[in-house]
Amino acid sequence: MAAEPAEAESAPADTSAEEAVETAAEGADGPEESAESDAAPARAPEAEPEPVVSEPAAGAEHEAGPDEASAPDRAPEAAPEPEPEPEPEPAPVDGNAGRRRLKAALWPPRLSRGQLVVALLLFSLGLALAIQVRSTNDHHSQLRGARQEDLVRILDELDSRQQRLQQEKAELEQSLAKLENSSNQAKEAQEQTRKKATELGVLAGTVKATGPGIVLTVDDPQGLVKADMLLDTLQELRAAGAEAIQINDVRVVVNTYFTDLSGGGVQIDGKKASAPYRFTVVGNPQDLVPALNIPGGVVRTLESHQARATITQQQKVVVDAVVDLKTPQYAKPASK
């Protein structure tokens, strides 16, 4: 314990001896330094080198001394800047690219059928116009070089040709007028023939008929009406101006006949007809009704046989029963 103070006291003595030596050395160097300072300007103080700090070995324990504890914290190292990417080199410019595209667009030619037809038509039209212009120019050149006598002769020929054309035109117009008149006459004759055929068809019973008329209904509850009574009724209607007559579903024509059946009833043109007998008549009702109601006429005769006759006037009746036209076997049209 007594030795420790002795060591503490010897330490200041050593320190004072070292300071004395350094002072003597500075005194010896002082004149040289002053001379050098007079001869040359004072140099700038050199920058102190940065202290190099060595990293401790991995796993080794390190105790921080008083100098290390007081040292300032080191600045963080800056991150390295990324290197710039190289710019792509521009593609070389080809001076013939436009020509190649133009050639590819124009050749081979792409023509549709419609374009080809239009081109042919235009070519034909141009050729025809060229030929026409050339022929006209040749004709004009001939006329320019012709003599006066030749021009007069050409003019006379043109006048004669014009007169002939006018005459032909007049003849054609006259022929057209004749054809129109004959055509109109033929149409009129054809219309008259058709109308006459229709009228004859109504009378012959080959076509249907309609118009004002009457409907006569004969009821025969006792079955006493005979064929002769129906024939008398038909004759009265014809005499009163009936134009078309139908009994039940049988069309009355010029050769219509009536027969009595053995079991009762009447047969008309080979078809059996039973009561009530219905007469559909086309004609003037003002003439037909009085003809049936005269004293001793058809209505009175039917009533005397216990039959009842009913007459109805109508503005339009339809006779729709027709007969087949038969070709005559012996009769033929007689010439005038």
TrEMBL record:
Residues 1-15, 37-59 have a biased composition (Low complexity). Keywords: Coiled coil. The keyword Coiled coil applies. Transmembrane segments: none annotated. InterPro entries: DUF881. The keyword Coiled coil applies. GO terms for cellular component: plasma membrane. Residues 148-199 form a coiled coil. It comes from the Bacteria. Residues 1-96 are annotated as: Disordered. Signal peptide: none annotated. Gene3D superfamilies: Protein of unknown function DUF881. It holds the Pfam family DUF881. Belongs to the UPF0749 family. This is Membrane protein. It comes from Streptomyces rubellomurinus (strain ATCC 31215).
